[in-house]
Amino acid sequence: MTTQMLQEIGEAGDAAARQLGQNAERLAELGARLRALDPPLVATIGRGSSDCCALYLKYLVEILSGVPCASIGPSIATLYRTPMRLAGSVSVAISQSGRSPDIVEMQRAARDGGALALALVNDVASPLAQEAEILLPLCAGTERSVAATKSMIAGLVGGASLVAAWREDRQLAAALAGLPDVLRAQAAPPPATILERLANARSAFVLGRGATLAIAAEAALKLKETCAIHAEAYSAAEVLHGPAELVAPGFPVIAFLPSDAAREGMLPTLTALADAGATVITIEAGGADESDRLATARVGAPLLEPIVMIHRFYRLAEALALRLGRDPDRPRNLRKVTETV
Questions:
Q1: Given CA atoms 159, 86, 98, 230 in this order, what sign does their dihedral have?
Q2: Host H or E run for residue 174
Q3: H or E element: which one contains 285?
Q4: Neighbours of 114 (CB within 10 A)
Q5: Phi and psi (nearest 5°) for 253?
Q6: CA 159 to CA 46: how far, in whole Å?
Q7: How far is it, in rounded angstroms, from Cα 29 to Cα 34?
Q8: Distance (Å, whole) CA 160 – CA 63
Q9: 312-336 pLDDT tens trace
C-alpha cells in the first residue's frame, strides 16, 4: 500500500524547488524592504503544523538577527478583541489552506495595529493570501493526506528563505539552493528495528533544542495524528524539570540532535534519561542508520538541518502508522482543513 502521505513526502523536494524558483524576485524585494524597515519585532500567526513552522522561524530570526520573534494567539483578536500595538513590526501568518477564520482575523488585527502583514500560504486564492500585504506562495501543490508533510516542509523553506533574503545570508541562501536535491535523494525507509522499538508505545517524549525544538513539536503532533501515540515535545533544557518523572523502562524518547551549539547540552540529558530506563532514539545528520539512530542527509547550513530531519522523520511516522494498522491519510477524528474562531 502506497499512502498519499508517503507520496507527498516524496514530492517535498520538488515543492521546495518550485517555491525557491518562483519566489526569487519577491524575496529580493522583500529582503530590501525588511532591511529598510528594520522591525523591532516579528509576530507570527499560525496553528498546528503551521505554528511549528512559526517556531522554526522564531529561532532563525532571533539567531540571525537578534530581533525578538513571538507567536500571537489568534484568540486575542477573535475572542478578546484587543487592539494590537505593532507599529513598525512585521507579522508573518503561515497556513496551508489560508481559510481558518481566526488566522485571517488575527492577520487583519496585526495589520490594523501597524504591522507589515506577510503571509506564507499554499492556497493563493484564500482569504489569508488575498488580504496579506506581501504574499510568499508555498508552492506545495495539492496535499490530500490529512497529515501535512510537503506543505509543512514548504513552510519551513519559506521561513528560511525569508530570513536569508532579509539578512543577506549567503551561506544560508546557497544551502537552500541545494536543499531540493538533498530532499529528493533522501528516500530510504526507516530501520525495522526502530519501528519495533516504537510499536508498543502509548506515550513518548520528543526532544529538541534551538531550531530543532520546532520540529520536535511537529513530530509529536504527527505521532498523535498518524499513530495515536500520546507524544509530547519538550526542549532538552526543560525535560528534566518535572516531565522526566514519567520515564520508566522502555519509555520512548526521540531526540532531534543538531550539529550546532545546541548539541552538546542535549547529550547529558539523553544520558540521564537512558539511565532512568528510557529507550532513546536519535535523529541526526550524517552517518548511517542504526537500531537507535535515524541518520539524515547533510545540508550546507546547520540551521537547515531541521528541515531534512523532519522530512526523514515523516517516513518513520508513516511506516509506524502502517505497522500499527492505521491509515495515516485518514485519522479517525481529524480533517484536512480545520477552521477555528
A1: positive
A2: helix 170-185
A3: strand 279-285
A4: 13
A5: -130, 115
A6: 13
A7: 9
A8: 12
A9: 999 999 999 999 999 998 877 555 5
Which residues, in sequence order, are bridge partners of residue 37?
Answer: none
Residues 273/239, Cβ–Cβ less than 8 Å:
yes
- Which phi and psi angles does 200 have, rounded to 5°? -100, 10
Sheet order of strands, 279-285 included = 230-235, 203-208, 252-256, 279-285, 293-296
Q: Cα–Cα distances in Å, from 86 out to 22, 79, 81, 113, 292? A: 30, 19, 15, 5, 46
* pLDDT beyond 70 at 339: no
CA 68 to chain centre: 19
Residue carrying C-alpha cell 505554528: 51
Handedness of CA 18, 21, 22, 27 (dihedral sign): positive
Which domains, and CATH codes, for the chain? 4-185 (3.40.50.10490), 192-323 (3.40.50.10490)
Tell me if 77 sits within 8 A of 108, measured CB to CB. Answer: yes
Q: Give the residue numbers marked as catalytic.
A: 336
